[in-house]
Amino acid sequence: MTADATARADTAGQGPVRHFTATGYVVNAARTQMLLVRHRKLGLWLPAGGHLDPNELPHEAAVREVLEETGVHARLVQLGEPVVTTTRPGVSELPQPWVMLEQHIPATAREPEHTHLDLCYLLEADDSVPPLAQDTEVSAARWWDRATIGSQPDVVRPPPPDLTTRAGPVSRQVTLAGGTRGVPVRPGSGTASRGPAGGGVGR
Questions:
Q1: For residues 184 and 34, is the Cβ–Cβ distance under 8 A?
Q2: Which of 45, 53, 59, 162 meets the CB 3.0–4.6 Å disulfide criterion with 36?
Q3: In angstroms, rounded to a whole number, what is the distance separating the alpha carbons of residues 53 and 61?
Q4: Angstrom distance (rounded) from CA 1 to CA 21
Q5: What are the C-alpha distances in Å from 65 to residues 93, 121, 144, 145?
Q6: Taking the CB of residue 192, how many other CB atoms lie within 10 A of it?
Q7: If you compute the radius of gyration of the chain from its CA atoms, what whole number of angstroms results?
Q8: Per-residue pLDDT tens over the stretch 11-67
Q9: Of residues 172 and 90, which shows the higher confidence score?
Q10: Nearest to 23, CA basis, from 98, 128, 79
Q11: pTM
Q12: Bridge partners of 174?
């Protein structure tokens, strides 16, 4: 779903316009590689992601965006046990994102200034299946290992959870075969950002 479908001007003076987005940080089973896409407009390698479709749950959006942008079928990784136990009919607990980011998106000719509330999920997929860029906003898709993800200037150092465990406490660091990377911050914003730290900018 494009940003045009959800963008609306703040003409009523009710504060900043906020859009919900979802990002899928996709790793292989060994936690040694991460799947990234190259964003055409930004010219950077980012995790796949975008706006939620109407009536779509955030974790479903993360899985869908990965499939739409890379052709890879990823599955959600549960981060720990449920926080709430309830027996109330009609109430259920959704899968936990490992972090939620607030991203300031500047105004463009197509849409006004707004904010992305980005729910980031850890996903897992088979890295033996080669990804293929599927979306018009994505020019390429590939798996990156620990050595190359930090050595290329156009590869954003993404902030997924601790990738050395199959499930565990939420972390703001990435561990890919022997190193950690912190959460990138948009220059001048003062907040952790998916632009360029994630895949939802301008979508």
A1: no
A2: 45
A3: 7
A4: 10
A5: 22, 12, 18, 21
A6: 21
A7: 17
A8: 445 667 888 999 999 999 988 899 999 999 888 899 999 999 999 999 999 999 999
A9: 90
A10: 98
A11: 0.72
A12: 181
- Whether residue 152 has pLDDT greater than 60: yes
Distance CA 124, CA 24 (A): 9
Closest C-alpha among 62, 68, 36, 196 to residue 135: 68
What amino acid is encoded at 192 in this protein?
Answer: A
Instruction: Please give the Cα distance from 154 to 177 (Å, whole number).
Output: 21
Average pLDDT value for the chain: 74
CATH code at 17-79+94-181? 3.90.79.10
Q: Please give the structure tokens belonging to residue 174.
A: 């990435």
Residue-level pLDDT at 158: 55
CA distances from 149 to 31, 108, 152, 171 (A): 13, 30, 7, 19
**H or E, element range at 69:** helix 58-70
